[in-house]
UniProtKB/TrEMBL annotation:
InterPro entries: MSEP-CTERM (IPR027550), PID_CTERM (IPR058207), VIT (IPR013694). Residues 479-611 form the VIT domain. Keywords: Membrane, Transmembrane, Transmembrane helix. This is MSEP-CTERM sorting domain-containing protein. NCBIfam families: MSEP-CTERM (TIGR04286), PID_CTERM (NF046080). The chain crosses the membrane at residues 22-44, 56-77, 84-105, 125-146, 158-181, 193-217, 229-252, 272-288, 300-319, 325-346, 366-387.
Length: 965
């Protein structure tokens, strides 16, 4: 340990601040992290910055480098000399870093001008600069307090606290009054400088005397035991509780007119644990010193555990310390605002005293271990709780969106309830430095650990609540909600042309479809053009372009969610930009969006299509032919090099044998919690309608609530009567399970699905199950047997929730084509005039580059995509390799999109968002969905930096409480 010239061992914990190694932890590390964060922001936006802003960035980078290098050099020199940090260092550090912050805050708008879209700089750079500069300022202040308060003489704590309140007024009088007459003499810059300087000096002076007063209280604790106890009760117990009550609006009615019941002035601290820990922490700090070693050890361990609580609030209020002048003027609020700083000094003092006493009773290494274990207890408890939240939430998401159909699920619904409540609480983005429903820093940690820095849309939360809790879905069905579009004109297709060439080497047509779009209402400033194209089987999207500003900008093939998010942010800007987005809506339809189409100016865009056969497309009612339609049809199937996936053309399919499989009914019985009273009539209803059909002889039955439970055909009525419903009516999951079984085990029979329920509107059912169409080649219909005993047909291909007006009766055999032959059929294909993709092997891997043509690579990509629809459990493990395979081939899939962007900054932002999305869990969302407004992501992919900084500060606080002899 390094001692100051006035060495005294009565207060070793505070004197340990003089060790030069502290500068490595509290200055060098935070500045390096700040530089990394700033560099990340600069890399995205630098191409948008004007020359003046670029120069400012260079100057501030140089200033930060000089300050950091000088401080590091001083620390190394003092360490080598075996000398402590001096008074001159603390004064220079306070002046230099305060000056840096003043100049930065004054030039902040020039560093990132308003012309730079705020979604490109989602992190608040000012918050970063303040957060990572404050440790240096706080440490320099502590060093100055230690040097100016020798422990070998008597000091007055009351005088220090009195000076803390007098300092702002004194500096205001000394610095501001003599220059007040200059306001009318064109000295606006001088006035602003003096005002800011007086504010900074007054703030530092106030904080200095406050910390010094708390320090003196520790020095005088033995002499003034009663007074020390009064101060400790006030600082450790009463003021923290009063601060929580005031923050949460429980004193004087709070700010109820301006915030919700879960908001707080400085964050959401409504959880009862904050109050309980505040009381426990205050009681432990106020306990008198114990003479026995075992009681003292227990108190020491308790104080160690709650040190994390004290340190947490110190970190939370650290950015507010510059507001201390205003806080002191508002006497009550000021005392509460500064309580965490004073409490930290008191807590360190008590731990230091405990350590000094116990050092003679127990081995030092055991005390160190106990201190470390205690300080880590609360963070580890929080981490364990958040990890449990993550596990429960991701299990629920996996069951709903990426299930393993071969696995039996049984989730903890009650744990999910609490987890979803936390998710909803943490979904709100921080709104500046005041009035928030988030728990400061813990919300960031939660979003990182549980949500991978993404979110869960309100639709998905409602979906999970309806599924597992039986709650009524309050949202519109996904397929009825229109896509978001900016208000403006009504752009429409004004020109359509095609260019096709035949690649003889690959035996593939390469066609370009060129679209010209214009405003139909030229009085409107701007509008978005959107259309959907139906692509035939075997046609892949291989490129995309959008003309903008007199040049042709080729699209970037990007991860789908990231591309959609970037497009939404650009469209949501107040400035007019030029994005274009092309993405799959399902396996056979692509959506094209172009923004803006401005008044009379037409926009030109186009996409490249790779196809084996000539084809005709319809775009907004206009037909266009790609390729030579006089060419001979493709009469034979085409396979990938490894024969994993086969393209069966319409002509080739007609050569396959025609067979009729035997149908059987598969009844899905609604046994959800809400259907408990109506299920008794199911047996009568089924017998009345289906008992005489031939397909009923081999019927199967599945009980459906939150889970799908198959039951024996001869015992289904008994199982139905004994079943206790859990959650909602998860019809989609049951349909997927039945279709997976039919696809996995193709045979001479096939299911005709009949849903038995009183009200199909209560079912959890998406827009369609088109992606599983290879599992129902005979018919895309399923039937609903309602409360009236009548059946109504519904389509698996489109708008599955709504009934069909006229359909064939269920249970009639329908002819299909057998692949590759009737005797050893591996798949069955619908008997129609369209091509099909057949998986020729039970497992299809992610495509690897091995000499296939580009079209064949596309076939393998889409074949894998078809396999993955029946094996959604593989999504998480193979999503990134699949996306990378799509990138390599330049062929769009359902996981990727083509996005045309205007400038390099947009492309850099896309790259950053894409990396974040690919590192996260596949079932999480980037925003609230197609209709969501523009959103901010305050931490984005850099949360690890803030967490690293917080961890480093925490480790430092552990070390300073232990004196190394």
């Amino acid at each position: 340990m390094f001692d100051s010239p006035s060495t005294n061992d009565d207060y070793p914990a505070m004197r340990n601040f003089l060790n030069p190694k502290w500068l490595l932890l509290l200055n060098t590390l935070p500045l390096v992290l700040l530089a990394v964060l700033c560099a990340g922001q600069y890399a995205v936006i630098h191409t948008l910055l004007p020359a003046e802003s670029l120069q400012l960035w260079r100057w501030f980078a140089l200033a930060l480098a000089v300050l950091g290098a000088a401080t590091l050099a001083y620390a190394l020199v003092q360490q080598g000399r075996g000398r402590p940090l001096g008074v001159l260092y603390s004064l220079l550090a306070l002046a230099a870093y305060s000056g840096f912050l003043l100049v930065y805050l004054n030039q902040e708008q020039q560093l990132i001008p308003w012309s730079v879209p705020r979604w490109m700089v989602p992190a608040d750079l000012s918050l970063y600069v303040l957060t990572f500069s404050m440790p240096t300022l706080a440490h320099a202040l502590f060093v100055l307090v230690v040097h100016t308060t020798p422990a070998d003489r008597r000091h007055s704590a009351a005088m220090s606290f009195l000076l803390a309140f007098a300092a702002p007024l004194a500096w205001g009088i000394v610095l501001l009054l003599p220059f007040s007459f200059l306001q009318g003499w064109h000295t606006h810059w001088l006035w602003n400088f003096l005002f800011a300087a007086s504010w900074v000096v007054g703030s530092i002076g106030s904080l200095f005397f406050i910390v010094r007063g708390a320090y003196i209280m520790g020095l005088n604790r033995a002499e003034d035991a009663e007074l020390s106890m009064v101060w400790k009760v006030l600082i450790s117990l009463l003021l923290p509780l009063a601060g929580l009550l005031l923050n949460n609006g429980l004193l004087w009615g709070g700010f109820s007119g301006y915030r919700s019941h879960e908001e707080g002035v400085f964050g959401n601290f409504h959880n009862p644990w904050f109050y309980m820990l505040a009381v426990l922490n205050g009681v432990l700090l106020c306990l008198p010193d114990q003479a026995g070693k075992w009681p003292r050890l227990l108190i020491f361990l308790g104080r160690s555990v709650l040190f994390s609580y004290t340190f947490y609030f110190f970190i939370v209020f650290l950015p507010y310390l510059p507001l201390s002048i205003l806080a002191i003027i508002l006497l009550g609020l000021g005392l509460l605002l500064l309580t965490p700083l004073i409490l930290l000094v008191v807590h360190v003092r008590e731990l230091g005293a405990d350590l000094e006493f116990l050092a003679g009773q127990f081995p030092r290494r055991w005390l160190r271990a106990g201190l470390l274990a205690g300080v880590l207890t609360l963070p580890l408890i929080i981490t364990a709780r958040y990890w449990h939240n993550r596990r429960v939430l991701h299990q629920a998401l996996a069951y709903r969106y990426t299930p393993d159909y071969r696995q039996h699920y049984d989730l903890d619904e009650q744990a999910l309830v609490s987890t979803l409540e936390v998710v909803k609480q943490h979904k709100e983005r921080a709104n500046g430095l005041a009035f928030s429903r988030q728990v400061p820093y813990l919300a960031t940690y939660f979003n990182w650990l549980v949500l991978d820095n993404l979110t869960i849309s309100d639709d998905k939360i409602a979906d999970l609540e309806q599924l597992f809790l039986g709650a009524a879905g309050a949202r519109e069905p996904e397929f009825t909600r229109p896509a978001a579009a900016p208000t403006g004109g009504a752009p429409a297709l004004s020109g359509l042309s095609a260019r096709s060439t035949y690649d003889a080497r690959q035996q593939t047509w390469v066609s370009w479809l060129d679209l010209r779009v214009s405003n139909t209402d030229t009085s409107q400033r701007a509008g978005e053009y959107a259309t959907t194209l139906a692509l035939p089987v075997g046609c892949w999207v291989g490129n995309y372009y959008l003309d903008m500003n007199g040049r042709r900008e080729m699209g970037i093939l990007a991860e789908k969610k990231a591309a959609a998010w970037v497009y939404a942010q650009i469209v949501g800007e107040t400035q007019v930009r030029d994005p274009g987005l092309l993405a799959y809506t399902d396996s056979r339809h692509v959506n094209l969006r172009v923004y803006p189409v401005v008044r009379r100016a037409a926009r030109t865009t186009g996409l490249q299509l790779l196809h084996k056969e000539p084809l005709t497309l319809t775009v907004d009612g206009r037909r266009v032919t790609l390729g030579d339609t006089t060419a001979r049809p493709l009469a034979k199937p085409v396979a990938t090099p490894g024969n994993e996936v086969v393209f069966v053309s319409a002509a080739a399919k007609q050569a396959l044998p025609l067979v009729r499989r035997t149908p059987y009914y598969h009844f899905l019985l609604n046994v959800s919690a809400k259907q408990a009273a109506g299920k008794a009539a199911y047996a009568r209803r089924i017998a009345s309608r289906f008992a005489h059909d031939a397909a009923y002889a081999h019927a199967r039955f599945t009980l459906v609530d939150a889970y799908a439970t198959p039951v024996p055909a001869d015992q289904w009525a008994q199982e139905l009567a004994q079943h206790t419903g859990r959650g909602g009516f998860y019809l989609e999951g049951a349909l997927r399970q039945v279709l997976f079984d039919a696809w996995q085990h193709p045979g001479p029979t096939y299911p005709v699905i009949v849903v038995v329920t009183d009200e199909v509107s209560e079912a959890i059912l998406g827009p369609n199950l088109e992606e599983l169409s290879s599992a129902y080649p005979e018919s895309s219909l399923f039937y609903v047997l309602g409360a009236t005993g009548e059946t109504q047909a519904h389509s698996l291909l489109t708008n599955s929730r709504f009934g069909q007006p006229a359909t064939p009766a269920p249970g009639q055999p329908i002819a299909v084509r057998a692949w590759p032959n009737a005797a050893h059929a591996q798949a069955y294909l619908p008997d129609n005039a369209t091509a099909d993709i057949v998986l020729n092997q039970p497992t299809v891997g992610v495509p690897q580059p091995r000499g296939a043509s580009r079209w064949q690579t596309g076939l393998l990509l889409h074949g894998y995509q078809q396999w993955q629809q029946f094996h959604p459990e593989a999504t998480e493990a193979e999503r990134v390799p699949f996306v990378q395979a799509s990138f390599r081939a330049g062929i769009m899939t359902r996981f990727t999109s083509y996005l045309a962007l205007e400038n390099e900054a947009q492309k850099a932002a896309l790259s950053r968002k894409q990396q974040e999305v690919l590192q996260a869990t596949a079932t999480l969302d980037v925003d609230e969905g197609p209709a969501a407004p523009v959103t901010d992501v305050p931490i984005d992919g850099e949360v690890w930096v803030l967490l690293a900084g917080g961890l480093a500060l925490a480790v430092g606080q552990l070390r300073r409480t232990w004196q190394v002899g």
